[in-house]
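Repro case for the chain-ordering regression, as requested:
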Amino acid sequence: MKRILGAPRVGVGPVVLILALCVLAAAVSNKAFNASSFLPEALLARWTGPEHEGREVYDRRVQIVDAVGLAPGMTVADIGTGTGLFARLFARRVGPTGRVYATDISRWAVFKTAVLARAEHLGNVVGVVGDEDDAGLAAGSLDVAFVCDAYHHFDRPRPMLQSIYRALKPGGRVVLVDYDRVPGESEQWILDHVPARFDRPSVLKDFEEAGFRLVDEETFLDENYLLVFQRQ
Ligand SMILES: C[S@@+](CC[C@H](N)C(=O)[O-])C[C@H]1O[C@@H](n2cnc3c(N)ncnc32)[C@H](O)[C@@H]1O
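-- result from build under test --
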């Protein structure tokens, strides 16, 4: 498991890098600090770019988190965490005895999530930098794996699913939220954005072949589906 420990190895400008290091230094100290007063508004807005009204999964985030069915003490992974929108919400649900692995192939995404989580005093979020074909999580460690708006970005979905399967405890669940791509019904931008290979029937087949069983489905989303799978 590659946990994020320091500054990102990415090509950011020196000013942003220095700011980020300052924030990290404050974040790793035990002093409480408020990210919104510490960070310039413009930088914070850039960091939390996908967290905006009008994005369905943001507008319905509380219902989505309810549907994940977390309880205090659980271990959950937010795979393809982005800015950690859901990882940070999960952290509050599982509480101090639980753990949230915020994983992404982007070191920068994991770094931002770790800093934002620390700024919100969430000590139970662990950032993990994964690979294209492996979420980087220990075998049998998870009660729940959550994948939102990320599956259709996976370059190697089948090995990723196998790695998620291995990371789950027996009977563990995967909650998958993604755009429902239906030619003739979906908006054009969804048809353009989501490759045909990631339409819902193909995704269901991937999960079935990886050893998962569809056990539940929520219907409160319009543009997205929310499916719950169980590891057999
Ligand atoms: C559109 S963002 C979604 C972020 C977050 N889940 C949300 O809903 O706000 C997709 C994320 O998936 C990540 N990603 C793409 N391929 C991945 C892979 N194989 N493993 C983990 N993360 C991946 C990207 O780096 C990106 O941060």
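Ordering looks correct now. The pocket of S-adenosylmethionine is lined by residues 50, 57, 79-82, 85, 103-106, 109, 130, 132, 148-150, 153-154, 160 (CB under 6 Å).
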